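Reminder to self: tokens first, then the designed residues, so the page reads top to bottom the way the pipeline ran.
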């Protein structure tokens, strides 16, 4: 539903605000949740919080999302308070409602949460330098390290089978067989590419079954704009956008960094000559991630870092291409064949990784050898 500032102010007032509420404004550029910045005035100056409405079309059980959020943030903050209290104070922290709850449910059944605003820090939209790549990867590795001792029970799976690539492949094959929009005839080379490389979809899950790759607490959306960087030092402060934090594979997080960071082009670039896996950026991702994870990753996890970039990029190609064949029912499009173009960029990136995979593997080995 469309919300007025007055509507949002009424919802914000259900939380334990500090000071006098003076302003609410749309905030950020996220595509999932509705997000607002709430400003209150105090004698010491303005105090800001971030108010979010959980998108129940994406997250069917929003209370579970918030339960995960609360457990993860409290665990990280508690650990940091013992070793680095200034950084602990700059982690995501929920603001309770007036009746001491972690969330508020409005009359429409929508679920809202509020967090303290992290001052003097910001996110970036693009990885522009190897230094930025290293710090981004280090922070996502740090996030995993901080949560390796999260007590049982396991977190809720907020989006079931999010990175279960064999199921993504099966869904693609089903829509290909039906071809409801008669689009397969114009995507033969892309379809042939998927079918040619389909055999590596289950490799990581086979290692999980064999006990070589453990299920960990993972972020599952490891884009640079989910890391807050200090405005002065450009050092990582905290990891944000925790709605997809759930049980997963460390390699999924690293693979998604390779997919989103190493190519210099946009995800829907039509000039495929601009698509490539940039080795200097990959090297920085490996160094940053290994810096925080080398003490706990298994040998099989380390061996498959480069592979994970190929797998997650291939998985995203399957999703874009399947949606194109289905009639663009999931991803929003802004032009004809938009999802087909997106699938082609992913295919080009997979091919670039295939062309460089041996060198990528050698680089990974050398980085971990130096840390041993």
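Designed residues (372 positions):
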């Amino acid at each position: 539903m469309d919300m007025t500032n007055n509507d949002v102010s009424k919802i914000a007032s259900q939380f334990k605000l500090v000071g006098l509420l003076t302003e609410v404004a749309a905030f950020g550029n996220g595509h999932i949740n509705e997000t607002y910045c709430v400003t209150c005035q105090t004698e010491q100056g303005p105090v800001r919080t971030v108010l979010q409405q959980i998108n129940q079309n994406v997250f069917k059980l929003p209370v579970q999302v918030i339960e995960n959020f609360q457990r993860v943030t409290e665990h990280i903050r508690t650990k940091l308070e013992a070793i680095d209290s200034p950084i602990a104070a700059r982690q995501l922290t929920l603001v309770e409602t007036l009746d001491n709850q972690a969330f508020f449910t409005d009359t429409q059944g929508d679920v809202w949460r509020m967090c303290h605003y992290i001052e003097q820090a910001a996110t970036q939209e693009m990885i522009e330098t190897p230094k930025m790549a290293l710090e981004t990867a280090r922070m996502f590795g740090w996030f995993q390290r901080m949560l390796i001792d999260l007590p049982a029970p396991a977190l809720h799976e907020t989006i079931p089978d999010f990175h279960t690539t064999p199921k993504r492949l099966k869904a693609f094959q089903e829509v290909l067989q039906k071809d409801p929009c008669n689009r397969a005839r114009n995507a033969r080379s892309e379809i042939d590419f998927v079918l040619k490389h389909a055999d590596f979809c289950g490799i990581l899950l086979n290692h999980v079954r064999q006990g070589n790759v453990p299920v960990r607490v993972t972020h599952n959306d490891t884009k640079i704009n989910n890391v807050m960087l200090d405005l002065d030092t450009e050092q990582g402060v905290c990891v944000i956008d925790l709605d997809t934090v759930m049980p997963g594979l460390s390699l999924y997080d690293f693979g998604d960094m390779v997919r989103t960071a190493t190519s210099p082009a946009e995800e829907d670039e039509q000039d495929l000559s601009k698509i490539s896996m940039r080795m200097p950026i990959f090297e920085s991702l490996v160094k940053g991630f290994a810096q925080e994870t080398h003490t706990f990753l298994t040998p099989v996890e380390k061996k498959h870092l480069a592979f994970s970039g190929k797998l997650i990029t291939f998985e995203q190609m399957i999703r874009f291409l399947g949606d194109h064949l289905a009639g663009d029912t999931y991803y929003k499009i802004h032009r004809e064949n938009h999802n087909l173009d997106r699938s082609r960029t992913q295919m080009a990136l997979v091919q670039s990784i295939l062309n460089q995979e041996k060198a990528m593997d050698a680089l990974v080995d050398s980085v971990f050898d130096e840390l041993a």
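The two ends are 54 Å apart (CA to CA).
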